[in-house]
């Protein structure tokens, strides 16, 4: 439906009388209102249909993978910005914030939705400030810092007033959003382009499970470097390591598939550990696939560097307070551990967790589409991506 | 062998060696006609060629005249390889799992060190293949250890075998030539397909985990036969049980072995010119060497074997045979009773003091000793619960789970990648061991080291329970220099995943699933080792070795 | 050469002492800043130079007291920076002064709210049924724990060390029990024994140094070492005005005036009052600027001073 909308926007007008033009415009707006039902922002039906559709897809498994979810969310937020009726920056931010909150509470594990929401809100703030700054000469420094503390000039200086309507905000936002979209598209290439810098010839690399970033990274390394050996831990019970192995087996590197129990035994021969992660926490720790903690510990024991591939959209400003924290970890279907129809299943408790927490001291390097960073620098990246007031949506 | 199978010409050639004439014709009938011709050809060749000891050069001369068949060309190539190997012979002691040949001087010592060297031999049915054990007992191959050598072990072995005539153990068979064989050796594809030249298989083998070439033993089990008249049936039965994993665990294997030896002793008839103990010793040695083919011997078995050798030397020379046999059987029973049963009791009672009310105990895999301890604790009405960590490909934890649940102990089960998740709840970790090495390292089922590592990171004490008969004088610092390789197919098959992407992993040239059986846990990750003698820190293992008679220990 | 002697109609030390007396819960750093604001207000100065020197003198006097130096030093340094940043070359002195006073008031207000911000952040880390270990008496930690108990109704247990030689820990226990929190007093030397049964360690700080480490009552370093060994998280709760530009390399490298009170400074056998905990042992710092990792502290200081 929305496609139609955009198409209709580009209709050229040939020699219509003014009355006709007026009618046309009315028709357009009418159509637009109809199409915008999906994005109806009346308080009576949050969430927006598009958001609800996204949630539904993710829960049913039709849409999976952080990248896909991020792209889809970005898409929806972009449409909100362009289509919905909002008058001021404040209103828009509120709108996006509510939708983001809905997404975050419906999909607590998919932090990428909250991340991209925060990013967009920050973008709105920035664009607004930029436009304001052209009008009034106000320095744009909204981060809380000692400097700020000391140089404040007025009481409520930190919370800027965003409620003034601003011309040109929508266009500026859409422009900038385009940049973000491009960034998302080239994300994976940027990460794998750094493969040559980190992998030399004749290395033995260990990885765990199946991560798309790692797959592309390794494929590139295999193309550019000779004589690599890649050891893949299969990561039971889903054994996604097998997928990665099959995908990489066509290259020139030697692939060894090992069960999870052999990780420590093999670690003494490994030169580097390269893993992907589900998300990066605010202290530089990881929420990664189950088994990553063992890999990182074993690597630490043998002083093997652990390189984590984490594109920027996975950086999330949440802290892990403790292991029993709500929604930090999920358990999935335990069929892979013990079949349901076995005798033991009646009497035993079975767990099959999905995630693992890896503390920041076990990680050596993060590689994102912006380059490499130390885990201790994550706080800085976060402050550039998100505004501190949005840490709690 | 009802269905005629296409047989690789090369395998055909090898089969010929083993056949006595009567069996040969029986088999030939089931093969396709095309191969029978080559069969016949080779038969003729073989009967005319000379027996060779280290067959490399002989092989060459044998086959160099006849360049007609593809097989011969291939055999020639392999002969050249073997010639190269012959020069580098005797380099590495830790070698392929073939039992050390009797006639091979450099390897005589290796017989005792052959534990865990070889890859696990192929599944059982291979034993039923038709072959006749040559007259001389035991020694399988004159094959050299293929150490650190990237060449195809199997072809090498095949080369060595090829010229050897009946006296030697059946040579490596390319495979599945056994007609009625649901064979799952690690190189299955030639069997299924038509005549494949050896080279693709060779190429593929080359990428088989270079790191582990020194561990690759070939599965010779498929060339062993059930009705091998030179070997006592109880040995064959024990070997079978090892091979198809119906008997697993170091204690169980040790007991099975000792029972088999006991039967052998009772059945033994002294040949006229030999002394009882000498003859028996030689006999048992052959059987043990034969047993190596099924699965590399566990440390407990090797220690038991050493004990038997020791008691054989201590026998009085003037008793009757029957008295000696009785004596021996009693001693063996005493060994089982003391070293295994009583030791388990002693260890159990020591550990009972460490299990308190409210404990959450984590254990890994299936150890008979740990099972015993936990059942005992439950009998004493201690309030505890158990977390069992399981891992592929064998999923042994389910066996322990079954046993504990049947006793009514409350259990939780997780896979090994979830230990980071479950470890905060755990108060103690109890682990079994396969062996304890002299430098304090614990050799146990692969995955144990990880458990100890994560336990240490959560400050949970890890106790290793190990009877002293499993102590070994060997030293080792990591799990790769010396280990046992299992069947790579197990990794691909056992996983109950939806799409088995690696079902035909053989077709990928450079992909290899690796199935290590054991791994080594460093002593700093272990809080204590519980033996029947005392609770020790891991670093005191040499102390125990010192106070036990050294002839007995491996 | 301006005339350096400005008539003072106030006594810095008196005012300072008065501030400390009035509000026992106020940190000495804030009292120092208040004093300096008072100095700023009451000084008549024509050039900034005079102002500077007056303030320097005041600072010297305050440092002469027996109170903990770290907070005073960092507070006054921050104030000096504040003056520098508030200086406008293009405006007359009177106007500058008014701007400074105005900003100063806001600055002070913000600082007074810092404790509750920190308490709010630390809230999510305190869970029901957890056991917390803390060292001696810290007002920030006290407020954080009281807030957790009263505002979010969480039940937890607190172990408090004596924190000798003045046994401030006893006072802390009393204050916690008054609110209804289960508090247990332990010996300083029992920290190793207790560490395996606690879930987390929370301490305050007298100063946060540029490396990301902290200066705190003696015994904190030992506690941090134990916590690291036992794999327990070590959290520091500190207000942002405690950040200082010091960079100690080890215990010996700490300035003498930090370690010993004035009358002990000549006695080499005296017992130091504080010690330095390197950043490697600290898991997170809770400040009013946010939850920071130790590496972010240096970032903040650089932003301020450079």
From TrEMBL, chain A:
Positions in coiled-coil regions: 170-197
Signal peptide positions on this chain: none
Main location: cytoplasm
Keywords for the protein's UniProt record, in alphabetical order: Coiled coil, Cytoplasm, Initiation factor, Protein biosynthesis
Pfam families (alphabetical): IF-2B
Any one annotated GO CC term: eukaryotic translation initiation factor 2B complex
Record-annotated membrane-spanning stretches: none
Family, per entry: Belongs to the eIF-2B alpha/beta/delta subunits family.
Assembly with partners or alone: Component of the translation initiation factor 2B (eIF2B) complex which is a heterodecamer of two sets of five different subunits: alpha, beta, gamma, delta and epsilon. Subunits alpha, beta and delta comprise a regulatory subcomplex and subunits epsilon and gamma comprise a catalytic subcomplex. Within the complex, the hexameric regulatory complex resides at the center, with the two heterodimeric catalytic subcomplexes bound on opposite sides.
Protein name per Swiss-Prot or TrEMBL: Translation initiation factor eIF2B subunit beta
Automatic annotation (TrEMBL), chain B:
Summary of subunit composition and partner proteins: Component of the translation initiation factor 2B (eIF2B) complex which is a heterodecamer of two sets of five different subunits: alpha, beta, gamma, delta and epsilon. Subunits alpha, beta and delta comprise a regulatory subcomplex and subunits epsilon and gamma comprise a catalytic subcomplex. Within the complex, the hexameric regulatory complex resides at the center, with the two heterodimeric catalytic subcomplexes bound on opposite sides.
Gene Ontology CC: cytosol; intracellular protein-containing complex
InterPro entries for this protein: IF-2B-related, IF_2B-like_C, NagB/RpiA_transferase-like
Compositional bias (Basic and acidic residues): 51-81, 90-112, 140-163
Annotated Low complexity bias: 164-179
Source organism superkingdom: Eukaryota
Pfam families: IF-2B (PF01008)
Protein name, UniProt field: Translation initiation factor eIF2B subunit delta
Function in brief: Acts as a component of the translation initiation factor 2B (eIF2B) complex, which catalyzes the exchange of GDP for GTP on eukaryotic initiation factor 2 (eIF2) gamma subunit. Its guanine nucleotide exchange factor activity is repressed when bound to eIF2 complex phosphorylated on the alpha subunit, thereby limiting the amount of methionyl-initiator methionine tRNA available to the ribosome and consequently global translation is repressed.
One GO molecular-function entry: guanyl-nucleotide exchange factor activity
Region Disordered, residue ranges: 48-204
Family to which the UniProt record says this protein belongs: Belongs to the eIF-2B alpha/beta/delta subunits family.
Keywords, sorted A to Z: Cytoplasm, Initiation factor, Protein biosynthesis
GO biological process, one term: animal organ development
Keyword Cytoplasm on entry: yes
Compartments, as annotated in UniProt: Cytoplasm, Cytosol
UniProtKB/TrEMBL annotation, chain C:
Gene Ontology MF annotations: guanyl-nucleotide exchange factor activity; translation initiation factor activity
InterPro entries the UniProt entry points to: eIF2B_alpha/beta/delta, elF-2B_alpha_N, IF-2B-related, IF_2B-like_C, NagB/RpiA_transferase-like
Transmembrane segments: none
Pfam families according to UniProt: IF-2B
Source domain of life: Eukaryota
Coiled-coil residue spans: none
GO cellular component entries: cytosol; eukaryotic translation initiation factor 2B complex
Compartment annotation: Cytoplasm, Cytosol
Keywords: Cytoplasm, Initiation factor, Protein biosynthesis
PANTHER family in alphabetical order: TRANSLATION INITIATION FACTOR EIF-2B SUBUNIT ALPHA
Known role: Acts as a component of the translation initiation factor 2B (eIF2B) complex, which catalyzes the exchange of GDP for GTP on eukaryotic initiation factor 2 (eIF2) gamma subunit. Its guanine nucleotide exchange factor activity is repressed when bound to eIF2 complex phosphorylated on the alpha subunit, thereby limiting the amount of methionyl-initiator methionine tRNA available to the ribosome and consequently global translation is repressed.
Family assignment from sequence similarity: Belongs to the eIF-2B alpha/beta/delta subunits family.
Quaternary structure note: Component of the translation initiation factor 2B (eIF2B) complex which is a heterodecamer of two sets of five different subunits: alpha, beta, gamma, delta and epsilon. Subunits alpha, beta and delta comprise a regulatory subcomplex and subunits epsilon and gamma comprise a catalytic subcomplex. Within the complex, the hexameric regulatory complex resides at the center, with the two heterodimeric catalytic subcomplexes bound on opposite sides.
Name of this protein: Translation initiation factor eIF2B subunit alpha
Biological source species: Hermetia illucens
């Amino acid at each position: 439906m929305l496609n139609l909308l955009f198409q209709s926007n580009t209709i050229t007008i040939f020699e219509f009388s003014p009355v006709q033009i007026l009618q046309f415009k009315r028709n357009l707006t009418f159509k637009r209102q109809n199409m915008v039902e999906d994005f109806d922002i009346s308080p009576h039906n949050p969430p927006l249909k598009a958001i609800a559709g996204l949630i539904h897809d993710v829960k049913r498994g039709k849409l999976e993978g952080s990248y896909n979810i991020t792209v889809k969310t970005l898409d929806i937020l972009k449409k909100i910005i362009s289509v919905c009726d909002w008058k001021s920056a404040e209103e828009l931010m509120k709108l996006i914030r509510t939708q983001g909150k809905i997404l975050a509470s419906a999909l607590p594990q998919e932090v990428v939705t909250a991340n991209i929401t925060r990013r967009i809100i920050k973008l709105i703030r920035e664009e607004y400030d930029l436009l304001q700054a052209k009008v009034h000469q106000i320095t744009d420094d909204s981060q809380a810092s000692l400097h700020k503390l000391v140089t404040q000039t007025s009481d409520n200086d930190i919370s800027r007033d965003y409620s003034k309507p601003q011309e040109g905000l929508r266009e500026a936002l859409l422009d900038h959003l385009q940049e973000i979209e491009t960034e998302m598209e080239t994300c994976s290439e940027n990460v794998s382009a750094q493969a040559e810098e980190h992998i030399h010839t004749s290395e033995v690399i260990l990885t765990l499970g199946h991560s798309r970033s790692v797959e592309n990274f390794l494929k590139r390394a295999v193309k550019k470097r000779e004589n690599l050996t890649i050891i893949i831990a299969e990561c039971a019970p889903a054994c996604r390591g097998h997928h990665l192995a099959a995908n990489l087996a066509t290259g020139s590197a030697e692939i060894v598939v090992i069960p999870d129990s052999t990780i420590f035994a093999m670690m003494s021969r490994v030169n580097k550990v390269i893993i992907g992660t589900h998300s990066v926490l605010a202290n530089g720790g990881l929420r990664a696939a189950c088994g990553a903690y063992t890999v990182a510990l074993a690597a630490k024991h043998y002083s093997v560097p652990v390189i984590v591939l984490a594109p920027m959209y996975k950086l999330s400003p949440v802290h892990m307070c403790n292991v029993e924290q709500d929604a930090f970890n999920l358990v999935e279907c335990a069929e892979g551990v013990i079949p349901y129809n076995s005798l033991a299943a009646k009497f035993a408790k079975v767990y099959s967790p999905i995630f693992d927490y890896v503390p920041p001291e076990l990680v050596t390097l993060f590689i994102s589409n912006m380059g490499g960073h130390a885990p201790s620098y994550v706080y800085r990246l976060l402050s550039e991506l998100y505004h501190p007031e949005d840490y709690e949506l | 062998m009802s269905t005629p199978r296409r047989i690789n010409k090369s395998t055909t050639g090898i089969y010929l060696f083993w056949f006595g004439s009567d069996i040969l014709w029986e088999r030939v009938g089931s093969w396709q006609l095309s191969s029978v011709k080559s069969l016949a050809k080779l038969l003729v060749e073989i009967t005319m060629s000379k027996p060779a000891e280290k067959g490399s050069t002989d092989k060459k001369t044998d086959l160099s005249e006849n360049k007609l068949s593809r097989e011969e060309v291939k055999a020639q190539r392999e002969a050249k390889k073997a010639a190269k190997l012959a020069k580098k012979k005797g380099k590495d002691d830790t070698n392929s799992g073939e039992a050390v040949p009797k006639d091979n001087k450099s390897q005589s010592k290796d017989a005792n060190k052959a534990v865990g060297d070889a890859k696990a031999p192929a599944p059982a049915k291979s034993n039923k293949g038709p072959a006749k054990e040559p007259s001389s007992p035991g020694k399988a191959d004159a094959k050299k250890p293929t150490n650190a050598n990237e060449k195809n072990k199997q072809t090498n072995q095949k080369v060595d075998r090829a010229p050897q005539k009946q006296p030697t153990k059946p040579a490596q068979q390319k495979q599945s030539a056994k007609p009625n064989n649901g064979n799952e050796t690690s190189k299955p594809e030639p069997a299924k397909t038509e005549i494949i030249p050896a080279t693709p298989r060779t190429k593929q083998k080359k990428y088989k985990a270079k790191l582990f070439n020194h561990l690759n033993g070939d599965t010779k089990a498929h060339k062993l036969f059930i009705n091998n008249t030179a070997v006592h049936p109880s040995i064959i039965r024990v070997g079978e049980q090892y091979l198809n994993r119906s008997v697993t665990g170091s204690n169980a294997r040790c007991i099975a072995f000792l029972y088999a030896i006991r039967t052998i002793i009772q059945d033994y008839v002294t040949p006229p010119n030999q002394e009882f103990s000498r003859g028996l010793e030689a006999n048992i040695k052959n059987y043990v060497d034969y047993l190596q083919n099924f699965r590399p011997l566990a440390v407990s078995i090797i220690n038991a074997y050493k004990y038997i050798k020791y008691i054989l030397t201590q026998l009085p020379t003037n008793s009757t045979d029957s008295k000696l046999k009785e004596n021996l059987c009693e001693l063996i029973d005493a060994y089982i009773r003391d070293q295994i049963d009583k030791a388990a009791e002693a260890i159990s009672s020591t550990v009972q003091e460490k299990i308190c009310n409210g404990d959450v105990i984590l254990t890994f895999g299936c150890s008979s000793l740990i099972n015993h301890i936990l059942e005992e604790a439950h009998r004493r009405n201690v309030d505890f619960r158990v977390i069992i960590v399981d891992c592929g490909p064998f999923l042994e934890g389910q066996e322990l789970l079954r046993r504990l649940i049947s006793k009514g102990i409350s259990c939780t089960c997780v896979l090994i990648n979830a230990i980071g998740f479950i470890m905060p709840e755990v108060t103690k970790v109890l682990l079994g061991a396969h062996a304890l090495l002299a430098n304090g390292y614990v050799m146990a089922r692969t995955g144990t080291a990880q458990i100890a590592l994560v336990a240490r990171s959560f400050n949970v004490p890890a106790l290793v329970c190990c009877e002293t008969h499993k102590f070994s004088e060997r030293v080792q610092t990591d799990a790769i220099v010396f280990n046992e390789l299992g069947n790579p197919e197990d990794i691909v098959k056992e996983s109950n995943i939806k799409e088995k992407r690696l079902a035909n992993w053989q077709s990928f040239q450079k992909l290899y699933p690796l199935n290590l059986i054991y791994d080594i846990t460093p002593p700093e990750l272990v809080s204590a080792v519980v033996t029947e003698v005392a609770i020790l820190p891991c670093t005191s293992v040499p102390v125990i070795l010192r106070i036990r008679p050294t002839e007995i220990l491996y | 050469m301006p005339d350096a002697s400005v008539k003072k109609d106030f006594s810095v030390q008196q005012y300072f002492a008065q501030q400390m007396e009035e509000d026992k819960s106020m940190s000495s750093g804030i009292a120092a800043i208040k004093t300096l604001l008072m100095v700023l207000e009451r000084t008549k100065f024509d050039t900034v130079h005079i102002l500077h020197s007056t303030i320097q003198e005041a600072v010297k006097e305050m440092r002469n007291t027996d109170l903990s130096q770290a907070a005073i030093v960092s507070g006054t340094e921050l104030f000096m920076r504040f003056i520098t940043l508030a200086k406008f070359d293009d405006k007359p002195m009177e106007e500058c002064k008014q701007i400074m006073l105005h900003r100063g008031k806001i600055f002070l207000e913000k600082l007074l709210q810092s404790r509750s911000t920190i308490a709010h952040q630390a809230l999510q880390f305190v869970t029901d049924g957890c056991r917390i270990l803390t060292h001696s008496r810290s007002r920030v930690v006290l407020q954080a724990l009281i807030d957790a108990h009263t505002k979010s109704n969480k039940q937890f247990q607190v172990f408090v060390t004596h924190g000798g030689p003045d046994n401030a820990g006893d006072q802390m226990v009393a204050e916690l029990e008054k609110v209804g929190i289960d508090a247990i007093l332990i010996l300083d030397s029992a920290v190793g024994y207790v560490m395996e049964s606690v879930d987390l360690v929370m301490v305050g700080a007298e100063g946060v140094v540029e490396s990301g480490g902290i200066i705190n009552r003696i015994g904190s370093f030992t506690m941090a070492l134990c916590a690291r060994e036992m794999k327990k998280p070590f959290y520091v709760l500190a207000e942002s005005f405690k950040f200082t530009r010091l960079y100690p390399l080890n215990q010996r490298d700490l300035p003498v005036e930090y370690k010993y009170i004035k009358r002990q400074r000549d006695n080499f056998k005296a017992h130091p009052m504080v010690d330095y905990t390197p950043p490697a042992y600290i898991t997170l710092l809770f400040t009013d600027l946010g939850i920071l990792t130790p590496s972010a502290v240096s970032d903040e200081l650089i932003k301020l001073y450079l």
